[in-house]
Design goal:
Elements: E1 7-11, E2 15-17, E3 22-24, E4 28-31, E5 40-42, E6 48-52, E7 73-75, H1 82-95, H2 101-121, H3 130-141, H4 148-155, H5 159-169, H6 174-192, H7 198-205, H8 210-221, H9 225-231, H10 236-247, E8 253-256
Antiparallel strand pairs: 1-4, 1-6, 2-3, 2-5, 4-7, 6-8
Protein name: HTH araC/xylS-type domain-containing protein
GO molecular function, one term: sequence-specific DNA binding
Pfam families: HTH_18
């Protein structure tokens, strides 16, 4: 589910990605910004340990072009000693079966945090671009219910300059980022069940009407909102994390199996 973030994940078994079923062997992978939902298919039981990168929307690796990796997954085992971390995590998750899942995940979290601090942040020569962070946070604070012109007015910048900032640091247009986070806000509202109808949730999230919601929903998630919630195959934990991100209480390290 697109959430306007970059992820790194390590898989213990082969996965198939996308419509062309790209083979992802056990390794470390960088997930670029996605504008549509994608699937990872495992043909046998598989652990997937995921690190969600913060600050949100920002690619912290100058070795990669944010626009070029849009809607792709790239191997990074050769970057920052990634092969060593991948091997350690695969071993911890696959071989230490005498330990509980919680213990194994705690070990992996420690390994990942140490790697990020010692191998990535200290050597990547990375600085947060202040103006882009302010622009993306402006969209996040408004939960995607914002027009490009409002960004321009708030920062006294042209549409061309805003476009350059987002494509360089994020790989998405500001409009695409707004669409993703507006849809995330709708998912959060509808899942909460606090509003009387789906239409009320759509309007509260910033959609003009139900037709506007359905058009953008199908464009990103490839189904209608009713089918999405009726199917009940969605990841409720992911929607819970949306609320945490909007509330500023999100933890950047996620563990999943």
């Amino acid at each position: 589910m697109p959430q306007g973030v970059f992820d790194i994940f390590i898989n213990t078994q082969a996965l198939l990605y996308g419509a062309d079923k790209q083979l992802l062997l056990p390794s470390m992978w960088l997930v670029g910004q996605h504008t549509r939902q994608y699937q990872l298919i495992a043909e046998e039981p598989c652990w997937v340990f995921t690190i969600r990168l913060k600050p949100f929307a920002l690619l912290p690796f100058p070795q990669f072009n944010a626009l070029e990796i849009k809607n792709t997954i790239q191997s990074i085992t050769r970057n920052f000693g990634g092969s060593g971390l991948a091997s350690q995590i695969v071993e911890s998750l696959s071989e230490n079966k005498q330990q509980t899942a919680d213990i194994r995940l705690a070990v992996c979290t420690h390994l990942a945090q140490t790697w990020l601090i010692e191998k990535v942040l200290s050597k990547a020569n990375f600085t947060v671009p202040t103006i882009f962070r302010a622009e993306s946070n402006f969209i996040l604070r408004n939960k995607g219910d914002i027009q490009v012109q409002a960004l321009c007015d708030n920062f006294s910048l042209s549409k061309v300059t805003i476009r350059k900032h987002f494509l360089a640091h994020c790989g998405l247009l500001s409009k695409e980022m707004s669409q993703i986070w507006r849809l995330n806000h709708f998912l959060m509202l509808e899942h909460s069940g606090k509003l009387p109808s789906m239409t009320h949730s759509a309007i509260a999230a910033g959609f003009y009407d139900q037709a506007h919601l359905i058009r953008e929903f199908k464009g990103i998630l490839d189904c209608t909102p009713k089918v999405f919630f009726k199917d009940r195959s969605f990841d409720a934990a992911t929607i819970t994390q949306i609320a945490k991100r909007f509330g500023g209480s999100y933890s950047p390290v996620i563990q999943a199996d």
